[in-house]
Amino acid sequence: xxxxxxxxxxxxxxxxxACSNSQNDATPPTQDQAEAAPTTGAAAPAPRPxxxxxxxxxxxxxQPTTVKICVGTTPVGANPFxxxxxxxxCSENTANRTQGGAAFHSVCESQGMxxxxxxxxxxxxxxxYQVRIASRASGVNVPEEMTTMTxxxxxKRLGDCPAGVAPDTVVD
Length: 172
Description:
- The chain is mainly beta.
- The longest helix is centred in the first third of the chain and has 13 residues.
- It starts with 6 loop residues before the first helix and ends with a strand.
- The N terminus is likely disordered.
């Protein structure tokens, strides 16, 4: 299973997946999708590469979900908190360094739905950090109860990635 490190994407995908099963496509983003997501990621700090555990909780999740992911190096100019996702096009996707962390903003569309996400990152991106995301969804396919949503991600680094595991891959 392939999963890109986009933390805001976790919120976006949660919203979009709740409305459609097409987000289960495990194909990596195309070059066109990556280029369609302008960022100011060069100014933003990024998580240290390695094996990270993300505990994701929020309005749309009945209980917290734990995901272990092998995080790779963030490409220069990319937003480390909202990587491109298959089938999702982002017209805005920025991240900026703030005192004590980072802030990011994205406007992403898929299947007639638009999700606007704003997030704050705090903590030590070498060992443990927290992300808080507020998302607003609009479009004909969005259930009323999912028009606004908050997501929290608590991440801690577990060490190096297991041998043979590619970056941006979920580890069982």
